Every structure is written in structure tokens, then in C-alpha cells.
């Protein structure tokens, strides 16, 4: 990717030497980082070198009577005015100048301070316009005209206000091993930003989880990004997530893909552990027969903070653990606990965020033989 703002814009921090060089640096750093737990080769999944971000946020900067897109400067002390961003998907890239021109020409730039873009692989796009003022009927009528002309959805947001023109989501189609999965990606909620690498992550996870005669437990399931493809590989899936909006989206995505063998539960890990162990009863679990599940595999995709000690101990109960991490540092910390009872069988690096120091990691762990034998004796 060639960008005229390299060295100024803070969105890209590792750019000298090009894409392959920045990827090689990540691989070397993580080989060293995980060497105490894994000595095999790391599976590397590359990103497209440009037009890979389907979710992007920009400041809107006012200079006299003109408006500009802006990003934080690499020094974090100032901003950089930009007129393009080669990171973003082609539909967003093409839309950016047209949208700014339409906003200015139609006089809806007053107290506008941000524009967030969300697109799908087929070009469906939602733009959220962020304001420091209340949005009135005149704004809605003008924004509706712009949305129609540009063929997009627009969300107007201000304090305690959301005005929706069209839809507040896009429908993404992911191709996993030749099979299509459809997902509603909702504006202002978490989605994987790099759809091509996301497809690779799901395919890698499916390769490592293929137990059609048993059941799967998933923690931190979000909107079902992994859960729904996993359902093809297991008899039943039990998935938990603390966010109500994410659970609602997950259930909608399950219906969108005509999947029937998933139970989504809105519950944190601590509560779920208590329910599983019979310590407490929860109304949210009253229709789920825990004893009907035969679970020996668990999948986790926690936030950047990773898992706490109690959750790691809980996860260690299961024979096979698959862990996707957006923060290698907290993954290393968690492996110090998990590798007391399990060994790392596979390690993968997914380059979700090119030209940065960030990397997404995937780890497959299997219970060590001596702990398998102990577990069998404990069950007897």
C-alpha cells in the first residue's frame, strides 16, 4: 500500500520496507514472545495490502468555511488533514470525497465532528455522522436526499439522539471454505474490521475444531461471528455473551443462516460457571438442559484484557481449548495458567491490522496426557 500520509497519520505506524517487512517484524516478535509455550512454525495469514478495512472512523475538521477528514498525527499531539485513506474498502474509499462534498453543498456540516463508515463486501454502506447539536426535521430531510443520491444509509447521532435513514446495519457475506455465511453488522457495535482475514480466522478455527459427535462451549461469543460456522461441526453449541445487544444480533444471525443447534445465553463467565456447577440457579438458564450437553471442547475470544485467573481455571477443565486473542501480551499471561494442564498444538498469526504493531493470534491447546488420566480418575 502506498499512502501519501505515511509518517504523519497515526493510523499506520510500521510502514518502512512495505507490507512484507512489517509482517516479518510481527512474526519475529511473536516467535520470541511465545517460545516458552511453542517451538513449531507459526501459521501466518496475510491481509490484503490495501482496501482491507470495512470499518473506519474519521474526525471532521473545520477550517474557516471548509471541512476535511482528519486523523491523529503519529506523534499523538496534533491532527493530519486527509482527503483519502487507502486502508478502507473500495466502496468507502470512493464514497469519502462524494460524501464530504454533499455535506458541504447541502449545509449540514454545522457542529459536525465525526464520520464513521461501515461497509460490506458487496458495497452496502452505513455512514454515521456525529454532531454536537440536536438534529431536526430539516436535517433529516437533507440527509435523506444525500443518502438517496449516494445510495447509502445514514445515521445521525448527537447526545441522546439517533436518527436512522434507511437501515442501521449492513449484511455481510463471508465465504468460508466455499460456503457462504450471512451476518448483520450493526452500526456502532463491534465487528471484525478486516473481512478477508476474518474469513481466514474462521477457516483456521474450523480446521482445528471438527468434533461432529460432541458439543461445543463458547465464551465471549459476540454476535456469533465464529459460533454460527462452528454449528456445522458440532452436534450442539452453547454460547455465552454478557452484552444484550450482541446476543440479540447473534440470534438474528442464527436465523439468517437457518442454523438451529445453538443456544445463546446472556451471561458473564462467572455467572455461567456458577450455573454449570449448580451453585446458583438463573432464569436465563431455566430452558437449557445442561446435562444434555457432552462438552469436551471450548472456544474463547476474549477482549483485549484477556481472561482472569478464575476464567482460565474454568477453561482448563476442557480437553480441547481454542483461543483467539486480539492482544498477544495478555494471551502469553493466560498461557502461563493454561499450559500447566495443556500443551500448545498450533499457533497462528492473523494480520488483521497491517502497518501497525497489532496482531491477532490463534492458539489450539490439548490437555496433557498426565492430566487426561487424572481427569478420567476424578470422573470415576
UniProtKB/TrEMBL annotation:
Keyword list, A-Z: Methyltransferase, S-adenosyl-L-methionine, Transferase, tRNA processing
GO molecular function, one term: tRNA binding
EC numbers, comma separated: 2.1.1.35
Enzyme class name: transferase
A GO BP entry: methylation
GO cellular component: cytosol
Active site: 326, 326 (nucleophile)
HAMAP family, per database record: RNA_methyltr_TrmA (MF_01011)
Name of protein: tRNA (Uridine(54)-C5)-methyltransferase TrmA
Species of the source: Sulfurimonas xiamenensis
Gene from which the chain derives: trmA
Amino acid at each position: 500500500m502506498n499512502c501519501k500520509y505515511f509518517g504523519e497519520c497515526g493510523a499506520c505506524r510500521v510502514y518502512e520496507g512495505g507490507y512484507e517487512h512489517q509482517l516479518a517484524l510481527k512474526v519475529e516478535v511473536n516467535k520470541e514472545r511465545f517460545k516458552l509455550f511453542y517451538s513449531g512454525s507459526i501459521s501466518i495469514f496475510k491481509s490484503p495490502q490495501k482496501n482491507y478495512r470495512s470499518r473506519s472512523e474519521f474526525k471532521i475538521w473545520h477550517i474557516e468555511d471548509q471541512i476535511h477528514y482528519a486523523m491523529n498525527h503519529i506523534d499523538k499531539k496534533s491532527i493530519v488533514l486527509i482527503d483519502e485513506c487507502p486502508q478502507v474498502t473500495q466502496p468507502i474509499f470512493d464514497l469519502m470525497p462524494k460524501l464530504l462534498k454533499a455535506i458541504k453543498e447541502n449545509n449540514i456540516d454545522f457542529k459536525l465532528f465525526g464520520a464513521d463508515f461501515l461497509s460490506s463486501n458487496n458495497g452496502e454502506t452505513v455512514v454515521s455522522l456525529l454532531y454536537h447539536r440536536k438534529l431536526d426535521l430539516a436535517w433529516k430531510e437533507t440527509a435523506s436526499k444525500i443518502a438517496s443520491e449516494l445510495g447509502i444509509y445514514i445515521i445521525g447521532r448527537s447526545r441522546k439522539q439517533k436518527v436512522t435513514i434507511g437501515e442501521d446495519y449492513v449484511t455481510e457475506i463471508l465465504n468460508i471454505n466455499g460456503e457462504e455465511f450471512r451476518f448483520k453488522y450493526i452500526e456502532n457495535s463491534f465487528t471484525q474490521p478486516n473481512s478477508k482475514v476474518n474469513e481466514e480466522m474462521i477457516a483456521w478455527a474450523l480446521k482445528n475444531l471438527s468434533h461432529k459427535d460432541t458439543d461445543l462451549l463458547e465464551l465471549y461469543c459476540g454476535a456469533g461471528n465464529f459460533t454460527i460456522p462452528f454449528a456445522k461441526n458440532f452436534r450442539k453449541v452453547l454460547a455465552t455473551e454478557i452484552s444484550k445487544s450482541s446476543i440479540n444480533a447473534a440470534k438474528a444471525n442464527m436465523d439468517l443462516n437457518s442454523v438451529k443447534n445453538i443456544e445463546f445465553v446472556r451471561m458473564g463467565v462467572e455467572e455461567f460457571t456458577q450455573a454449570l456447577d449448580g451453585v446458583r440457579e438463573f432464569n436465563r438458564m431455566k430452558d437449557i438442559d445442561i446435562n444434555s450437553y457432552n462438552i469436551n471442547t471450548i472456544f474463547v475470544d476474549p477482549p483485549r484484557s484477556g481472561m482472569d485467573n478464575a476464567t482460565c481455571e474454568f477453561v482448563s477443565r476442557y480437553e480441547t481449548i481454542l483461543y483467539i486473542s486480539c492482544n498477544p501480551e495478555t494471551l502469553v499471561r493466560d498461557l502461563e495458567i493454561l499450559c500447566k494442564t495443556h500443551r500448545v498444538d498450533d499457533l497462528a498469526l492473523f494480520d488483521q491490522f497491517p502497518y501497525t504493531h497489532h496482531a491477532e493470534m490463534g492458539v489450539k491447546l490439548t490437555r496433557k496426557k498426565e492430566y487426561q488420566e487424572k481427569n478420567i480418575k476424578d470422573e470415576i
